[in-house]
Amino acid sequence: MKGILIDPEAPAAVDVVHYDLQNGGFVANGNAAQRLLGLGMDVGTMRPYIGTDGRSYITVNRRDAKDGLWKPVAVPTTNAATLRKDEWKQYDTAILKAAQLRLNVVKDIMGAGLVYRIGNGLGKTVLEYEDQSDVSEAEISMDGVTRGDNDRVVFDIKYLPLPIIHKSFQITARVLAASRERGDPLDTTNAELASFKVAEKVEEITVAGSSTYTFGGGTVYGLEDAPNKNTVTLSTNWDASAKTGAQIVDDVKSMKQSSINARHYGPWVLYVPTAYETVLDSDYNATRGNTIRQRILEIDGITAVKVSDKLTANTVILVQMTSDVVRMVEGLPLQTVEWQSEGNMIFHYKVMTILIPHIRYDQNSRSGITKLA
Fold first, then answer.
1. Chain-centre distance of CA 340, in angstroms?
2. DSSP letter (8 states) at residue 98
3. What structural domains and CATH numbers belong to the chain?
4. Is 23 helix (H, G, I), strand (E, B) or coil?
5. Which residues in the chain show pLDDT less than 50?
6. In sequence order, what are the residues at sequence separation of 6 or more whose Cβ sits closer than 8 angstroms to the Cβ of residue 48?
7. How far apart are CA 324 and CA 369, in angstroms?
8. Per-residue model confidence (pLDDT) at position 139
9. pTM for the full model?
10. Rg of the chain over CA atoms, in angstroms?
11. What single DSSP character describes residue 281?
């Protein structure tokens, strides 16, 4: 639609807010982070709406005087709002609908309940967490008075950066006014496309990782570039004409054994690249009438075989779906914010989230992620 602008080819961007130890105070890198920092890191201040009384409101979190809990409260604002509350709902519904189209791996992780939600994630730049060492074996003696080694658990503090992932679009005042004059519902195409780009970036980071993105002593890793992952060598690509179903199953069994050797015993989900999807639909045994995919699912502990189009070609990943292996850290649910420019003739919108994969392993470098490549 003319008057509504978005670059469909540009990927979502990643911004971050960090604390400057040398000069003191928070510093924002990127347009979205700078605006949020200037507004006290409360995303509600960037979502003004027109109430039923015609006045402008924002929703902010405030502590209830009675029970002490933080609750959303509608607060009048002197700044003019652009959208009605129902129009905000249309945008919010559109971005959630679009996000579900692409989050294959992320959706599996979150669907398994492997989510760590942070209150006011915009006010935090890193997640501080601990890993734990093992202790030595128990001792054997006849009288029980032999002095032991007085071992103890050792905790190590680590950090995970919490960047903002976002994509922008804009609408002109005339287009919005024309939509209302006709009584047509708000066009949410651009919100959906922006949401798609954000979801795609989250999926890409979760699968391929972003090991070049480091901040605050931590690095954002994904399944493919995860440190300490188990590795199995791929002798022949699965889509090679000479590759048999039995050989593919043997590869998967080798991956499972590698995970077991690292003391991770499932349940597992197997992720394959797009090119292998139809390969797995081929017959494994013509007499039995089953496919290669069905044969893999007969391996104990493998609960699903999924396709991820973000996987590198000829790379297969086996993931133990437990919180000590992988989880998604959510500091800000997917939503849209707004600001104006050009004398309030152009309304800018940004779909944004803080949703980052957290790849985990113990102090003995044992991981529940196995890569076949």
1. 29
2. H
3. 4-127+158-222+327-359 (3.30.2400.20), 230-322+364-372 (3.30.2320.10)
4. coil
5. 1-6, 8, 16-19, 21, 26, 39
6. 56, 57, 58, 77, 79, 80, 81, 82, 83, 338
7. 11
8. 65
9. 0.70
10. 25
11. T
